[in-house]
Structures are given as structure tokens and as C-alpha cells.
Amino acid sequence: MATAKITKKAMRQDEFIEGVFDLGEWLEVHWKRVLIGLGAAVALVLLGVFWNGMRERASEEANRLLASGIAAYSPSAGGDGQTSAPRYAEALPLFEQAAAQGGSQPVGDVARLFRARTLIALSRAPEAVPVLEALVTARNKGLQSESKVVLAEALEATGNLEGAAKQLEELAAAPKGAPYPQDAALLSLAGVRERQGKTAEAKRVYADLLARYPQSPFAADARQRTSDPAAAGR
């Protein structure tokens, strides 16, 4: 009996986190242009909303803390139509508490991912790196992929652009059907190569994106970057 209960619990946890990162994959495909500019804040807000509907799958207290953290992390529109600024300093301890309460449950890992993003937003990327390095070895493939994306951002923020490129290269080389879209990874990788001053390498990556994914929603961006010399400098 005990073994059956544990197995069912593990299955529920896998369903929970797979649902979160299935939605994350959809967002990466359809919202990438927005996410590049906003540092994935939109994705995190929508992931949080989805996740909040799955409260029964994990610790109630951890869920409550995480929901409070998301509310502070995310910009919100007031009655006057003005959008309030994210409250990162307020969100950070809430994510830390949610991670502690959630432990090894999926909600704990999601809280740690949010914590890492918040540390990056607070210009504390070096602190985010070890958090993300632990998450990229998680059992769940979706969590691994999303953590690699954020780890690449953290590494670049610390000045380790080559390390960031390595994370994106691994995502771009993942098998077909992997949680994170390979064309999105290639677009981000090309951007890193540009910021390294490796223009020829960046163009090669853009060409790879166009060859492998000619119908990608990022194809127009890739064509512009390879055909317009001024665009590569922006």
C-alpha cells in the first residue's frame, strides 16, 4: 500500500510540473519577441497563474508563499490604468520561504526558479548561478530546460558569455520534441555570439536556424540580422 501511494504521489508531481513547463513551451513559441525584451516576466506571470490552479498538488503554505511572491514580482495594473513596478526586494524572501516549505516537491523547485530570476533582476546574478546549476539536474526535463535558459541569462550577467552560449547550445542540440524550442535557443545563442563580438559565428547560428526551421516565428528576425549589417550592432 505505501509503495502504491508514493508512486501515485510521484505521478501527480510529474503531472504538475509537466503542465507548468508545457505551458512554458507554448509561451516561448508564441511570446518570444515579448519575452526577449521583458526578461520572461510575462511567461512567469502566466506560469504562475496556471500553477496557482494546481494548488492541491503541493504544499498549501508553499503555494501561498509562492503566489504572494509572484504578486510582488509581477507588474500590475491599478484602477487608474497605471502599471506598478515589480517589487523584487519583497518577492525574494517570499520565494525563499516557498522553496524551503516546498522542499523537494515541484512547488519548491518552481519557487527556486523564481528566486533565481529575482536575484538576476536585483543585479545579484552570481547568487543565482548555483541555484540554477542545481535545477538543471532536476529529474523533470521541462524544469531542466527552463533552468538552462535562466542559467544562460545569469552567466551572461556575470560576464561569462561563453558559459551562457554553452547552455544555449545544449538546448539547441536537444532531440526533437524537447521541452524548450530549439529555434528559440538558436535565436538567443546568436544574440550571445553577437554580444561577444563573434559576428561570423552569430551569422552561422542564424543560418542554422533558417535551415532547420524555415517556418519558425523567428525566421524573419534571423533573415534581418543576417542581411542587415546595421541590425547586428543593435
Shape: globular
Radius of gyration from the CA trace? 18 Å
Question: H/E series, N to C?
Answer: HHHEEHHHHHHHHH
Classify the beta-strand content into a percent band: under 5%
Distance between the termini: 61 Å
Q: Give the count of helical stretches.
A: 12
What structural category do the secondary elements indicate? mainly alpha
Oligomer: single chain
Count of beta strands: 2
Question: What is the typical, i.e. mean, pLDDT?
Answer: 79
Summarize it.
This protein is an all-alpha fold. It contains twelve helices and two strands.
Provide structural commentary.
With 234 residues, the chain is an all-alpha fold. It folds into 2 domains: 2-76 and 83-160, no CATH class; 181-234, no CATH class. Helices cover 75% and strands 2% of the residues. It has 12 helices and 2 strands; from the N terminus they run αααββααααααααα. It has helices spanning 2-38, 41-52, 60-73, 88-102, 106-121, 125-135, 141-157, 161-172, 182-195, 199-212, 219-227, 229-232; strands spanning 76-77, 83-84. Strands 1-2 form a two-stranded antiparallel sheet. 40% of the residues are buried. The model is unreliable at 1-42 and 230-234 (pLDDT under 50).
